[in-house]
Design goal:
InterPro entries: RpiR-like_SIS (IPR035472), SIS_dom (IPR001347), SIS_dom_sf (IPR046348), SIS_GmhA/DiaA_subfam (IPR050099). The chain has nine helices and seven strands, in the order ααβαβααβαβαβββαα. It has helices at residues 6-24, 26-41, 54-59, 88-93, 99-106, 125-136, 149-152, 195-216, 232-242; strands spanning 46-50, 71-73, 114-118, 140-145, 169-172, 182-184, 187-191. The strands form two sheets. It has a five-stranded parallel sheet, with helices on both faces. A two-stranded antiparallel sheet has the order 6-7. The relative contact order is 0.18.
Length: 251
Amino acid sequence: MSHRTPAGQFLDAAIGLLRRLRDEEAGPMAAAGTMIADTVADGGRLFAFGAGHSSLAAQDLVYRAGGLALMNLLTVPGVVGVDVRPATLGSALERVEGLAGTVLDSSPLREGDLLVIISLSGRNVMPVEMATRARAKGVKVIGVTSVGYAAETSPRNPSGTFLKDHCDVVLDSGIAVGDAELTWEGVSAPFAPASTVVTSAMLQAVMATAAATLADRGVEPPLLRSGNVDGGHAWNTRVMTEYGDRIFYQH
């Protein structure tokens, strides 16, 4: 594929962003993976949340072959994904004060648990309120965001802060403001977003760290296997039975 084509240019951009993660975010990714391993070993539960398209990376961690069985999706009605009608309602709900706190109060989250919050801009009410309220409950928070937004945009929440300001560990995706990697003659708006591929890759790297860290401590990581390989269903049934009190997506 020619690197001069739009497809080639987008893939080059994505590869560059992934290389930056490998070279510049190794420390935060190791810290996040270790924190997840600590939570598993200490009997805590794992949750992930993202609003709109940020939810794609959160969902990628849940009930996933090769992933930790203990990762649960924290859902906010109308916010997780783009299935709400109209789709613009989801964006509006991210800016509603009190919604994140109400969801947390109704969720299983408790002291000793861990919550991954994914928000590209980190500027809206939802991720900031969720992070602050979760930490007040004694929940560890890993924030996945683009730190660059804090330098180029203004906060859109009453605290005047960003998600990055309320986390135990911050993972910086390095995505440019606007999340569009390409420009092209005759196209008036930048296009080709890369946040999903980059954020998902970063979080899978973190989960790999967590699994290996547990194994290095002599703890078998509670991983799921594909149901499409022989023995996969039996393996998953054993894992989900053993850890059933920490898995909420099967109830």
